[in-house]
Specification:
The complex is a heterodimer of chains A (713) and B (156). Chain A has 713 residues and is α+β, with helices and mostly antiparallel strands. Chain A has 16 helices and 24 strands. Chain A has three domains: 158 residues, Aldehyde oxidase/xanthine dehydrogenase, molybdopterin binding domain (Aldehyde Oxidoreductase, domain 4); 149 residues, Aldehyde oxidase/xanthine dehydrogenase, molybdopterin binding domain (Aldehyde Oxidoreductase, domain 4, 2-Layer Sandwich), CATH 3.30.365; 349 residues, 2-Layer Sandwich (Aldehyde Oxidoreductase, domain 4). Chain A has a seven-stranded mixed sheet, with helices on both faces. Chain A has a five-stranded mixed sheet with strand order 12-20-19-18-13, covered by helices on one side. Chain A has a four-stranded mixed sheet with strand order 21-22-23-24. In chain A, helix 1 runs parallel beside helix 2 and helix 14 crosses helix 15. With 156 residues, chain B is α+β, with helices and mostly antiparallel strands. Chain B starts with a strand and ends with a helix. The relative contact order of chain B is 0.16. Classes of the chains: A alpha+beta (713), B alpha+beta (156). Chains A and B meet through helix 4, helix 6 and helix 14 of A and helix 1, helix 3, helix 4, helix 5 and helix 6 of B.
Chain lengths: 713, 156
Amino acid sequence: MSAAGKPAPRKLPGSLDTNRRLDRWLRINRNETITVYPGKVEYGQGILTAFTQIVAEELDVKLARIQVARTDTSYSPDEGTTAGSRSLQEGGEALRHASAEARQLLLDKAARQLGVSLEQLTVDDGLITARSGGSVSYWKLASDDLLAREASGDAAPKSPALHTIVGASAPRLDFPGKMTGAPSYIQDLDRPGMLHGRVVRPPSYGARLLELDEAGVRAMPGVRAVVRDGNFVGVVTDREDQAVRALNRLRRTTQWEEQATLPETLDPRFLLQEASKDEVVSEIRDDTAAAGAATRLQAEYTRPYIAHASLGPSCALARMDGNRYHIWTHSQGVYPLRKDLAALLDTSEENIVVEHHEGAGCYGHNGADDAALDAALLARAAPGNVVRVQWMRDDEFAWEPYGPAMVVRMDAQLDGSGNVVDWRHDVWSNGHTARTNWQSATRNSTLLAARHLAQPLPPPAPANPPLPAGGAQRNAIPLYVFPNQRITNHYIERAPLRVAALRSLGAHTNVFALESFLDELALVAGADPVEFRLRHLKDARARAVIEAAATLAGWRSREKGNGTRGRGIGFARYKSQAAYAAVIVEVEIAGDVRVCRAWSAIDAGLTVNPDGIINQTEGGIIQAASWTLKEQVRYEPERVLTRGWADYPILTFSEAPVIEVKVVNRPDEMTLGAAEAVQGPTAAAIGNAVCNAIGVRLRDMPFTRERVLAALA
Amino acid sequence: MSIALNVNGQTRNVTADPETPLLYVLRNDLQLKGARFGCGTGHCGTCTVIIDGKAVPSCDLPVSAASGKAITTLEGLATNGTLHPLQQAFLDEQAAQCGYCVSGIIMAAKALLDANPQADDAAIRAALNGNLCRCGTHHRILRAVRRAAATAGGAQ
């Protein structure tokens, strides 16, 4: 009971709890279709296709009848950000239960109309038929008031045993358009009379604007406005090519004063010298077990800053009319963005409509939201006009928030039988999320241009979500059963480089360290890596994916590399509470490390779209292989040096592995997101395979040719 | 100035600065959004089109240099509503995630298969090395191109 004496509202599944009206989620249309209103957004992960499967399944209609409305603050449920592989748990569960309840309401109405009991009724593609004869369709029954009510939570979804659509691979809804060149992305939006904008970013984080040749640029063809607000400079033109020409001229002629604000070294170990707030996040003690310690091993693992490096540079459109704004964005969260924009544009949230359009894959918090503020600031210089802004590639690399650099130290002891009896894992990192902190007493904004305005709002200190998910400490707590363990997060507040959530957050590095170190211990213990893992693991689902991956790969106990080729395994349960995945890779080393093949088994609970999980797993393995083998943001004390693909090579077609994925379906378990399960296991599997192949342990990512040669020397 | 372009078999006249990259003209003047901006320096392949049989980036090619040549974009591949075998193969293999790279990759693959219908895996990989995919769908894309090659090979 609450303080006021009223019962607290019943807890409803997923995002239905915070968006309780059924008509926020679904509409049954008289034209024999159903419209779904998700608050989660598509960025290439296939989430909208999975949502249509869930709704079609619960409502017993064909997939083709389901339409998906774009996410828009005018009408969509507020589901915060689309992140953390939580879309199926939050949005999917809401839609599952809302659809089950809609079906129940339709059946109740049909029973009344047909004068039969509910038990008499069956549904086939929206047609409700009574066994005794008589039928009526959803489309006839649908009325505006039918779903105009709060969910009760009383309608149980279907038993998974009855599923025919959920659990079967469904082709992606968006692919036919994408394969034929149809406008598909925010970058493709065009509005009549649309103007084009570009922002002249400072040359570096600490730069201050000294001199701007406004008059010269205003005289260029097509230039509508030159915008200056503190260190924020932009231009608005009629044509896009004119905007790029004006940008290039401004880049050449604008004078800035720079300062050295970045670390002196590219080695992530600079983090060890930074002030940190230390927190023991897990401690288990068993003195009897500890007394059996016979061998101690210590090791240190690092990852540099890495970039999201979306293939499509950040883009947004904006229109200002008086104090009202319309924003078109590929943000991960239209409602949080609206709140951030209202604070900076001196207007209220009600005066801003934020409309989502898909961008290129973002893999976390990149420049999408920043571009929205850029567009809004430039739109103020051309009232009533739509202004489109797209970042140039060099700005995307230089100004996106990176995945933080990390250092992890491991320290463990084995007993005489080769069992782990003591385990320590210490993480040094910035926080991994950088959303505006609305609780902070100091006003701040995550949006890039905010810090450049004449009245700037500083960026928030990057923070970590709390455990069990965590940020820097994500997946630092092992799933393995170790009688003694102490896991410590050394949180570093000062962030010299701009950082934010990158797919899997700290899990990539923590699992890399944990699972590499486990192989180091197995080697000392003379144990097979698969057996060594199983020996320390009680969780049946964890054991099952490791065993399934080993079977898929034809793993042989204590298999040995041949001096150039070898295989290794990595495992994790993502966020310690989500999907289970094991990855085995085969590497070939000829100077460069190449991942030739990969095998993975993944358990994401009840499977919605098997091919969707396979696609995410394959892509996760390839992207993580790219991070692990090749990627590092480069900088010098004054400025970021990574400006283009030539500075930031990623895995190419010649280097891509052949991959086999086994999906372990768990019909009785909650559906879990699958997009971030394999990044950590892949990194560790590569490190373990390299060691298996050539007998040296690589502990610093990326595993470049130079590092391989140095390790062999 | 007015520039005549031959795009997907049609003559199109555009008024643009001759130095304007072809990509901006295709996307903004001709409303062909299939080729996409990725880097502006010819490093990523998202803007790939076929000009006189060769796959080239359109982001750093002045529009004047494309005048008088046969330009094909993704929009020009389907004939009378029938998808090109590559497009069909990409659908059959579900060979994308975000799909931003796919337009350029299909064009690069088409130029390859037009010149070498029997292209093997190594040739396909080499031909696609100028095209980046950040989602990591390489494995599926290679399968799709091999499938299209097999279809085309079988048809001959």
